[in-house]
Design goal:
The chain is α+β, with helices and mostly antiparallel strands. The protein is built from eight helices and 21 strands. The strands form six sheets. Strands 3, 4, 11, 12, 13, 14, 20 and 21 form an eight-stranded mixed sheet that branches. The chain has a five-stranded antiparallel sheet with strand order 16-17-18-15-19. A hairpin with a 2-residue loop joins strand 5 and strand 6.
């Protein structure tokens, strides 16, 4: 299938393989002697919740599912939701308390802010259909067509009328993850530290010692985290090198709240030539209910600035970025409050051409595949689910 590629083999290059039928197998290791049938997504869960076999050391054996998904970001939740729709027994493990990954929001000083992904565009028919469903139920709204830009030399340049529309969530971009997580079994604050193959099954262990096993595992975290999870020879060297070639850009994100000011006329503005500041959003323009005279700005630093000043204090970052933003809005230097978020893996600097990669029951997906961004993560999740359904 075009949506799913087999692993890298000796000599380089990807080859598509015929999908093996799922047959029966025994889980080995800590579950020695406990038989579990490996079946397709229409099979029964191998271990019911009240059947936790115990190992020879008295420790609970791993919780077993047909599929475990590591990460409740857009890609992971999309994969889990697609598989669950096919009758597959899926469990999602997420290290944080939220849903959506870098499509992230929070409430600060009474203001809802989007400190991760800033908007969504939709081009692929499959994602267009999803966005239309979110528009219909109010999860998303159309924010703007295109965005203006600003440079110190040329000043303002208006947005192109032919640009793709940008969509946002009035309740925050984390609403996308919450919508995808509905009716999906997600265990939050389950910080997975290791994923390995063990006797025909895939096993995941969390920081607190909880263990999970599955016939298939989907890892949807940023690739540096994926590689750290899949240590100890869990990945063939060529595949590991292929994934390790992707670098991620970091980002200092800064929200600043103001009172008694005039709202900017623009929803957001790009600064394509500035060495330190890449983006300023009028975050208030995304919300349904705002109080008169209150404005929240969201600023994103460039990768170069973030790398150079990665360990600076939040106050130092705020001072530097707001000073630059004052060229756009003179009152930017006098916020009532600020909130700082440092993203180590804000976005991949380039993406892999494959929508997902799979080998021997392991599938890797996320926004580093395909076209990237939120749409790319969603499509990569669909590809990962297809890999599993086909027996990759």
């Amino acid at each position: 299938m075009d949506a799913c590629y087999d692993a890298w083999r000796t000599g380089g290059g990807l080859r598509r393989d015929r999908w093996n039928d799922m047959g029966s197998a025994y889980l080995m290791g800590a579950v020695t002697g406990h038989r579990k049938l490996v079946g397709g997504c229409d099979g029964e869960p191998r271990t019911r919740p009240d059947e936790r076999p115990r190992s020879g050391w008295g420790m609970p054996a791993p919780r077993h599912h047909q599929v475990i998904v590591i990460g409740a970001g857009i890609a992971g939740l999309t994969a889990a939701r697609a598989l669950q729709a096919q009758g597959c027994d899926v469990a999602v493990l997420e290290k944080s308390r939220g849903y959506g990954g870098r499509a992230a929001s929070r409430t600060v000083h009474g203001a809802r802010i989007d400190h991760g992904a800033q908007f969504v565009t939709a081009r692929d028919p499959r994602f267009v259909a999803q966005v239309e469903a979110w528009l219909a139920d109010g999860t998303m709204v159309r924010w703007t067509h295109g965005l203006p830009s600003w440079t110190a030399v040329d000043g303002w340049r208006e947005a192109s009328a032919e640009a793709h529309p940008r969509f946002v969530s009035p309740d925050g971009m984390s609403s996308l993850g919450k919508a995808l997580a509905q009716d999906v079994a997600v265990t939050r604050e389950a910080h997975v530290t290791r994923v390995r193959s063990d006797g025909g099954a895939w096993c995941a262990q969390t920081r607190d010692g909880e263990r999970w096993s599955a016939d298939r595992v989907i890892v949807s975290t940023p690739l540096p985290q994926t590689l750290a999870l899949l240590a100890d020879g869990a990945l063939p060297p060529a595949l590991r090198s292929h994934l390790a070639a992707i670098d991620y850009a970091p980002c200092h994100a800064l929200a600043a709240g103001y009172t008694g000011v005039t709202k900017p006329a623009w929803p957001g503005v790009r600064l394509p030539e500035h060495p330190d500041l890449a983006w300023v959003a009028n975050d208030t323009s995304r919300r349904r209910d705002t109080r008169p005279g209150e404005v929240t700005l969201m600023l994103h630093a460039t990768p170069a600035f973030t790398r150079r000043r990665y360990d600076d204090t939040p106050d130092a970052i705020a001072s530097a970025l707001l000073s630059i933003a004052s060229a756009l809005v003179p009152w930017a230097l006098d916020p009532r409050w600020t909130y700082h978020q440092r993203w180590r893996y804000a976005q991949p600097e380039r993406t892999l051409p494959e929508p997902a990669l799979a080998q021997d029951g392991l599938v890797v997906c996320g926004d580093a595949f395909g076209d990237g961004r939120v749409e790319g993560a969603y499509l990569s999740g669909l590809a990962a689910a297809e890999c599993v359904a086909l027996g990759a």
